[in-house]
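I have a small job for you when you get a moment. Would you make up a two-line entry for one protein for me to read? No commentary is needed, just the two lines. Write everything out right here, beneath this request.
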Amino acid sequence: MIACCLAADGPSSRPRPRQPDSLEHGLALLACFSPEEPVFGMAELSERAELPREATQRYVQALVELGYLEQRRRGKFRLGRLALRLGLSAVRIDGLVEVARPWLCWMRARTGLTASLAILDGEELDYLAWLPSRLEGQAEQAAGRQARWSTTAHSRAAGLALLAFTAESDWPARTLVYAGRDLKRGARLREQLEDACERRYAISRDGREAGVAAAVLGVSDVIAAVELTIFGEQARRANVRALAGVAVEAANGIAEQLEDDSGTVV
């Protein structure tokens, strides 16, 4: 396995939209808790979050009703199951990225192409890690793609792979959603998903780039996909079968390291 330093795992700067005050206040209250200080009373929360007592009571009650806080005896509160689940999910995703990083380095070293790791986020594809190609003519275009960090799932190889290895019973609904309720596009998407399952990897192509991806089963049902991307004229001459072999090998390696009994889903 090749070890290397990973470039930034996301775009250098993203605009931060203004959030509603109630959301900010609720998050501020949740941020008060830590392993060192797992329990607080109402007055302590009000002081820590710098909120009026009345507003603190209102937000705490809402968080309790939603399951993000739990009330203990004597008016004390601690994080609820939903908050703990969110934190645990983040830890698991971090673990998946940590395991995948050396394999992404290996994929890039083996092929010279851009290597990445992605998950589904609703109808979008979210890239957790991205190693741009260093090849002449590839690096600049890879950086341009990195600026568009998320993209519609059905338009990318990683997204097709992830869609393909979900339950087939979900396909009719998914194909309608992703194809914009266009029956011809829906039928074409279904063919792509069926082909991906049969080949054990997914392919996407457009006029300027091509991608090949293999899906892996991560820890605790986190589904992710490794993807190789080639840009420009080289995309038309790409040996997809050879690239697919590299992606599948990396997917198998990641799954083995995660010690997942079910292995890869490709």
Notes: Residues 1-20, 261-266 have pLDDT under 50 and may be disordered. The chain has two domains: 21-79, 90-257. The CA atoms of residues 90 and 96 lie 10 Å apart.
